[in-house]
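Inputs:
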Amino acid sequence: MKQINQDFFARNTLVVAKELLGKIIKVGNVSGMIVETEAYRDDPASHAYNKTLRSKLMYDTWGHVYVYFIYGNHWCLNFTTEKNKPGAVLIRALQPLSGIDLMKKRRKTENIKQLTNGPGKLTQALGITNKFNGEVIGKHIKVFDNNLKFEIIQTTRIGISVAKDLPWRFYIKGNPWVSKF
DNA sequence: TACTGGATTCACT
DNA sequence: GTGAATCCAGTAA
């Protein structure tokens, strides 16, 4: 399996979000296949809309890990994109592949479907916190190519984004780990 | 220094 | 279907 290099992320955010589907994320001995992503660009729904200390990574880097905390409870995992524009792809759901026992322990559940079917869940299962924020992809969080073919659905999150050029959410059709939100 | 709201999840009804 | 938990970054002062 081939590891993805930084150039993969130096492209249009929507293209990266779409092509990340089916790729493998590996952190230590825990890994999973990406089954749902969300593209964030320079729109009012995104942290990228205002350049702040937090969103600086989205402006200045590509192929880096961007982790932030929300709702007092949850971490969200993003990969930054595009060389000359702000952008990032939120990883919304994974299909667990290895290290499942450790994921169950971290998530405190035996239900495999509940391990990584949401943005906050998968970071917990993978042990991702802001200690990885700003790291280049490949250091601790690795992404591998996986030559699988599947049907991809594009959609939007109506009511949240007022961005143009929608849609910007992608998931693998029929995969049980796609989040319901 | 204080206030506000959020790229969510879970328990409960 | 509804609401609580929970805390950090951004903003205003």
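The beta strands of chain A are 24-27, 30-40, 65-70, 74-80, 88-98, 141-144, 152-155, 169-172. Flag for discussion at group meeting.
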